[in-house]
Design a protein that fits this description.
Aminopeptidase, 34% strand, globular, transferase, Acyl_CoA_acyltransferase, N-acetyltrans/Recomb-assoc
Length: 159
């Protein structure tokens, strides 16, 4: 498996991976209506490509199949972070996270932060993040619980 930066030709695979992960994994922690609001049927592939090209988007590429991805914004915000439903708990997320943290350190950042779903919260805690606060967010008319989380970086965090 190779961890590399996003390429335009990855767009459809990561959009589909996002959609399927929310619909089939996050459904354990959220209602059917919530996951449909979070990952609606009408995926805009153009928007995905534009966003992924503007930030540091790392993908886990398993012989041409994208099995996970994570996005780092220049300010240290981790936006999207998803692993394929068939590749959960296999170290894919950890490898993507290591690439993100290495880039953050290269950029001179001292803090990473995210808004983790109920589903993703344990993963980020395992990566050393702490919960700042629980919050309620609304998307397409549905209210969701998620967690503002952060991790302070030091030079000893270099993997």
């Amino acid at each position: 498996m190779e961890i590399r930066l996003f390429r335009t030709q990855d767009t459809e695979q990561i959009a589909q991976l996002f959609h399927e992960t929310v619909r089939e994994v996050n459904i354990r922690d959220y209602s059917n209506n919530q996951v449909k609001a979070w990952a609606p049927d009408d995926i805009d592939f153009r928007n995905w490509s534009e966003v992924c090209l503007k930030i540091f988007t790392y993908v886990a590429d398993e012989e041409g199949i994208i099995v996970g991805f994570g996005e780092l914004e220049p300010n240290g915000h981790i936006n999207c972070f998803y692993c394929h439903k068939n590749y959960q708990r296999r170290g894919v997320g950890s490898q993507i996270y290591q690439a993100i943290e290495a880039k953050a350190l290269e950029l001179g950042l001292d803090r990473l932060f995210t808004e983790a779903s109920i589903t993703a919260k344990p993963f980020f805690q395992h990566m050393g993040f702490s919960v700042v606060k629980e919050q309620q967010v609304t998307r397409r008319g549905e209210t969701f619980t998620n967690y503002v989380m952060e991790k302070f970086l030091t030079s000893s965090d270099i993997a």
